[in-house]
């Protein structure tokens, strides 16, 4: 399979996917390709009427198909056929994604898309293995905890990993017996529509996946505030998550899962394998050009080894080359938009103005597209903008420590607690500090997820509520009912 493609040759599914068809709609949000800045399409915005139609379609589909009440193995089989089709159609999905997003086409085929298929199979297996429980009572009673689907789940996904994030939401919700109204980011809308079309080809009853396009202000608010939406799942910024909570509270009460922002530390001790640490740290901040909630953007290193570690990291950073995402040789991602690239540069500039120093990078890259140079910088103190703000770009700050307590103090961010990295050969230290780090995920002598989908992800503090992935994500898509029967 030839991965490179002509970005002007694609036919895009522009519209809202409701029931079993694509509803044509006039686009109003201009879309630009991050790799070359070229305008290529307009994204429509679903208003309250379109969202209402999608919700009612989902509710009707649940009733007519009895999706939540069929033999659980039937749900499993449909979802596994869907995962097979996702793998079979990986090239088409990769082209749709690479065109509009920051994801290189080669990374998509062998990474995002393959992993998404795995995750859907993973959640499918819960359909006939997770259920209700008998609980101990006295001999005169029978106690049960029954679980059942919520109904219609409203899911909102970000632009940084469009296919992966859609799989995170759709997989557990459908396996648990729900229907979904999904809003992908208005910047990267097209791969989600094709995912929905593949689900129908796999035998999923029409109407259980509905994809509505639009922004957060109009479409997102219509979803989260809709009385027919029983549960909300969102991945995105802390600011947007706060707005969703406010909208839900204003329009009613419903459960929610929020995976939000991060400003994750990576602690490196003098006894660490520095080559291994340098590779993991560089990969974590250059992957998707730092546009990931879990990006390890704060390097906190023991003072005695800071010089060789910085040398190793800067050497790797300088090899990043800007190529368009539709080129099979591309590895380094562009920034999603010119506005976001300007924001990144403004934070770097403000930190330098406050006394920080760029050891490498610190500028937009020359040429077409919204690329930003990989940047390693010192900052004055923990109040510097590059330390406090989620930059969402390829910017790594470095701070030093002498003691374990100082390292923990620097790692503890006042706002975020999504993930953390720890590099040391001392097992006792690793276990001791892992227990004290204020983060929902801690990686030791590595940085980043594996393909062990059983491990959940979610944050402390303002980095979120609830968990994605793992059995926790499946259980979060079912509600429980206590039953006590006198015999």
**Helix percent band:** 25-40%
The residue ranges in which pLDDT falls below 50 over 5 or more consecutive positions are none
Q: How many angstroms separate the termini?
A: 64 Å
Q: Whole-number average pLDDT?
A: 96
> Helical segment tally?
15
- Structural domain tally: 2
Please describe the biggest sheet, giving its number of strands, its sense, and whether it closes into a barrel: 7 strands, mixed
Beta strand count: 22
- The second-level CATH architecture of the largest domain is 3-Layer(aba) Sandwich
What would the principal axes of the Cα set say about the shape? Answer: globular
CATH class categorisation of the largest domain: Alpha Beta
The gyration radius over C-alpha positions equals 23 Å
CATH superfamily annotation of the largest domain: Aldehyde Dehydrogenase, Chain A, domain 1
With strands numbered from the N-terminus, the spatial order across the biggest sheet is: 14-15-16-13-12-18-19
Structural class computed from helices and strand pairing? alpha/beta
Strand proportion, as a percent range, falls in: 15-25%
> According to CATH, what is the topology of the largest domain?
Aldehyde Dehydrogenase, Chain A, domain 1
What does this structure look like?
This protein has 15 helices and 22 strands. The chain has two domains: 277 residues, Aldehyde Dehydrogenase, Chain A, domain 1 (3-Layer(aba) Sandwich); 188 residues, Aldehyde Dehydrogenase, Chain A, domain 2, CATH 3.40.309.10. With 487 residues, it is α/β, with parallel strands linked by helices. It has a seven-stranded mixed beta sheet, sandwiched between helices. Strands 9-8-7-10-11-21 form a six-stranded mixed beta sheet, with helices on both faces. 38% of the residues lie in helices and 20% in strands. Strand 1 and strand 2 form a beta hairpin. The mean pLDDT is 96.
């Amino acid at each position: 399979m030839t991965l490179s493609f002509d970005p002007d040759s694609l036919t895009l599914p522009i519209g809202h996917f409701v029931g079993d068809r694509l509803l044509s709609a006039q686009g109003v949000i201009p879309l630009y390709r991050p790799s070359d800045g070229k305008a290529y399409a307009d994204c429509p915005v679903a208003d309250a009427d379109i969202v209402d139609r999608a919700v009612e379609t989902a509710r009707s589909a649940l009733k007519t198909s009895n999706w939540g009440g069929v033999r659980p193995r039937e749900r499993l089989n449909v979802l596994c056929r869907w995962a097979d089709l996702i793998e079979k159609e990986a090239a088409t999905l990769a082209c749709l994604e690479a065109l509009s997003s920051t994801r290189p086409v080669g990374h998509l085929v062998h990474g995002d898309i393959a992993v998404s298929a795995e995750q859907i199979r993973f959640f499918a297996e819960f359909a006939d293995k997770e259920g209700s429980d008998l609980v101990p009572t006295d001999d005169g009673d029978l106690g049960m905890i029954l679980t059942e689907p919520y109904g219609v789940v409203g899911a909102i996904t970000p632009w940084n990993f469009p296919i992966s994030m859609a799989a995170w939401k759709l997989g557990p919700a459908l396996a648990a017996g729900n229907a979904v109204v999904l809003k992908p980011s208005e910047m990267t809308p097209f791969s989600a529509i094709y995912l929905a079309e593949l689900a129908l080809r796999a035998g999923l009853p029409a109407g259980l996946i509905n994809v509505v396009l639009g922004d957060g202000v109009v479409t997102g608010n219509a979803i989260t505030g809709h009385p027919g939406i029983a549960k909300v799942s969102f991945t995105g910024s802390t600011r947007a998550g706060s707005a969703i909570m406010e909208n839900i509270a204003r329009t009613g009460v419903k459960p929610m899962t929020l995976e939000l922002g991060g400003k994750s530390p990576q602690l490196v001790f003098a006894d660490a394998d520095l080559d291994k640490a340098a590779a993991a740290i560089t990969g974590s901040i250059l992957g998707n050009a730092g546009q990931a909630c879990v990006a390890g953007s704060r390097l906190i290193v023991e003072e005695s080894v800071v010089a060789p570690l910085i040398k190793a990291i800067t050497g790797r950073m300088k090899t990043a080359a800007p190529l368009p995402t539709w080129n099979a040789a591309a590895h380094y991602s562009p920034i999603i938009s010119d506005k976001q690239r300007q924001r990144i540069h403004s934070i770097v500039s403000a930190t330098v103005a406050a006394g920080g120093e760029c050891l490498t990078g610190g500028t937009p890259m020359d040429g077409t597209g919204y690329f930003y140079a990989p940047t390693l910088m010192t900052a004055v103190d923990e109040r510097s903008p590059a330390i406090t703000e989620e930059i969402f770009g390829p910017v790594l700050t470095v701070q030093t420590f002498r003691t374990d307590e100082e390292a923990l103090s620097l790692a503890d961010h006042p706002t975020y607690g999504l993930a953390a990295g720890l590099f040391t050969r001392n097992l006792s230290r690793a276990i001791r500090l892992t227990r004290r780090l204020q983060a929902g995920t801690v990686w030791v002598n590595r940085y980043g997820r594996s393909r062990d989908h059983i491990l959940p992800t979610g944050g402390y503090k303002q980095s979120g509520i609830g968990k994605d992935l793992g059995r926790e994500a499946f259980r979060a898509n079912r509600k429980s009912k206590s039953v006590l029967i006198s015999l």
